[in-house]
Amino acid sequence: MTALTHQQRETLASIAGDRLQQDVPLARLTAARVGGSADALVAVEAVEQLAHITTRLWEAGLPFVLMGGGSNVLVSDAGVREVVVLNQAREMRLEADTLSVWAASGAGFGQMARKVSARGYHGLEWAAGIPGSVGGAVYGNAGAHGGDVAGNLLVAEILHPSQGKVSWTAEQMGFAYRSSILKRGRIKAVILAARFGYQLDAAVNPQELVATYTARRKRTQPPGASMGSMFKNPPGDYAGRLIEQAGLKGTRIGGAEISPQHANFFICHAGARAADILALIRLAQRQVVDQFGIELSLEIELLGEWEAAHG
Known about the structure:
It is a single chain. By secondary structure, the protein is an alpha+beta fold. It folds into 3 domains: 6-87, Uridine Diphospho-n-acetylenolpyruvylglucosamine Reductase, domain 2, CATH 3.30.43; 92-218, Uridine Diphospho-n-acetylenolpyruvylglucosamine Reductase, domain 3; 222-310, Uridine Diphospho-n-acetylenolpyruvylglucosamine Reductase, domain 1 (Alpha-Beta Complex), CATH 3.90.78.10. The protein contains 9 helices and 16 strands. The protein has helices at 6-16, 47-60, 109-118, 134-139, 149-152, 206-220, 239-245, 274-292, 306-310; strands at residues 20-25, 37-44, 64-67, 73-75, 80-87, 92-95, 100-104, 143-144, 147-148, 153-160, 164-168, 190-197, 252-253, 256-258, 266-268, 301-303. Strand 6 (92-95) and strand 7 form a beta hairpin. Helix 1 (6-16) runs antiparallel to helix 2. The chain starts with 5 loop residues before the first helix and ends with a helix.
């Protein structure tokens, strides 16, 4: 992807106005704390702004990528040439009469789940420790502790480039393990908001479940800057187990390390570069396929100029 032309920058300025920021370091906006800068970034703070900006960008033919909580992405050291739309639309409301919670796509997914559980409602406890945004969780069908977005989503509010605003059910989202029809790239659209269902169950204490899941997460997942689970678990197995059996636990390249605690977590130490993480990713994939004949697929997404950064 080449840099925006002067004319494209002028068009972008007319669309975004004072929301436009240029040459913005992205590392601070990601969980990994690595990566280069965005040539152009536009922050939005409400669903209506997100819909307006992305519609105008489509109309102008300007390429863009969405960023929310930054927990499941790795930004190239060379940065991002497309317009980065930073989704900070965090509206959220519980609707007890319908036993549902509505949240803008930029809202914190774990925060939403904790808020529901704190009110005594059951069904979203599994999500309380998941980082990132609601939009990212829906996009990637996030899951933990036996639950996932597909099991709780009532409807996703979608902005489609030709159809405008539409509502999709979980079935229309085409959910699969850590995937959706959007993540698979079959349809180009933007997640604006989502509604999730929960239940009232006097036999369940939601806050106790949240505490149990939180304690388990702290025991099993390493601290430090990371992107969460690096690879999807292959059918019938675990990515972390395969990487560990390949002898790669604790392997370090530059400032990046395959966690000695959990091999499906890659930790970014001081001085880590995105190139270091990518080198570890390729090493793990190569060793696992060579030793076990299993190809590991990334759960995270790579953003930016990877060919320019890494040849």
